[in-house]
């Protein structure tokens, strides 16, 4: 059983506050994971870059899909 982590940020498209639920099981400590999550407000695809450090702390960055 995993403890889902609530992560609050703002949509890079519409700027509305959104909440992501991160599954701590998807990335091992020291690893990064990138995936797409649709904005709950404007439904555009947000690139979510999830990083878990060696202590198990999560950090999350949201980007527009077209950013490089
Ligand atoms: Zn949005």
Rounded to the nearest angstrom, the distance between the terminal CA atoms is: 35 Å
Quaternary status: single chain
Strand order of the largest sheet: 3-4-5
Name the hetero compounds present: zinc ion
Report the uncertain regions: none
Percentage of helical residues?
under 10%
Number of strands: 5
Identify the overall geometry.
Answer: elongated
The average pLDDT value, as a whole number, equals 90
SS-based class:
mainly beta
Name the helix and strand elements from N-terminus to C-terminus, one letter apiece. EEEEE
Number of helices: 0
Radius of gyration: 12 Å
Strand composition percent? over 45%
Biggest sheet statistics: 3 strands, antiparallel
Task: Provide an overview of this structure.
This protein has 68 residues and is mostly beta strands. Helices cover 0% and strands 50% of the residues. The protein has no helices and 5 strands. The protein has strands at 5-10, 17-22, 32-38, 45-52, 58-64. The strands form 2 sheets. A 3-stranded antiparallel sheet has the order 3-4-5, with no helix packed on it. Strands 1-2 form a two-stranded antiparallel ribbon. The radius of gyration is 12 Å and the shape is elongated. The structure holds zinc ion.
